[in-house]
């Protein structure tokens, strides 16, 4: 998943971003609401984590503008403003969840997973295709009961594909969701990771789950 972290306190921004990256998420970050508008206009995010009191444009107004533009990305507010009226304003501005500082990072991660479940229509942390199972909370993958060990980036690729199972995903779509703006890799990096993942996931099984759609991309599906 690709996450946008918008927090003007640079140290907290870094800590949140690094925690998300440790969980395998691709993270972009900025420090004010106006820059966040530009980021959201150019990239599709799975979740936005937003401070409320920021220079340029506060978090509530940022989400209002995004919603008016048709942007439905789930928004999580992180703020020290904890009154009932603040929570009401946050939710009515178009936010999806309101977490008061200081917060526990385990709760933050659980909220992010819950928000993405709601967004994708999945009611649990477990995603399946045929005999393949991915547990997004435990970060484990099994096929036919056998554990499949993946690197962080291979896992992120599989999670992205299984959340969009049955959908043909282009090289650009995968790159935009798995790597942030700072990435400066080779042009065939997506092909390489799809190859790694296919080897670990499909080798030894009669039924192949990752399929190439020539000239377009790849799709994870049961045939």
Account of the protein in words:
The chain starts with a strand and ends with a strand. Helix 2 runs parallel beside helix 3 and helix 6 crosses helix 8. The protein folds into 2 domains: 119 residues, 3-Layer(aba) Sandwich (Rossmann fold); 95 residues, Winged helix-like DNA-binding domain superfamily/Winged helix DNA-binding domain (Arc Repressor Mutant, subunit A), CATH 1.10.10.10. It is 41% helix and 22% strand. A 5-stranded parallel sheet has the order 2-1-3-4-5, with helices on both faces. Helix 1 links the parallel strand 1 and strand 2. The mean pLDDT is 86. With 223 residues, the chain is α/β, with parallel strands linked by helices. The chain has 8 helices and 12 strands.
Total strands: the figure is 12
Whole-number average pLDDT?
A: 86
> From the 3D coordinates, which CATH architecture of the largest domain would you assign?
3-Layer(aba) Sandwich
Written as H for each helix and E for each strand, in order along the chain, the element string is EHEHEHEHEHEEEEHEHHEE
The CATH superfamily of the largest domain appears as Response regulator
* Percent of residues in beta strands: 15-25%
First-residue to last-residue Cα separation: 25 Å
What name does CATH use for the topology of the largest domain? Rossmann fold
Q: Could you list the spans in which at least 5 consecutive residues all have pLDDT below 50?
A: none
Q: What helical percentage do the residues reach?
A: 40-55%
* Cross-sheet strand order for the largest sheet: 2-1-3-4-5
Main sheet? 5 strands, parallel
**Rg over C-alpha atoms, rounded to the nearest angstrom:** 18 Å
Instruction: Using the coordinates above, name the CATH class of the largest domain.
Output: Alpha Beta
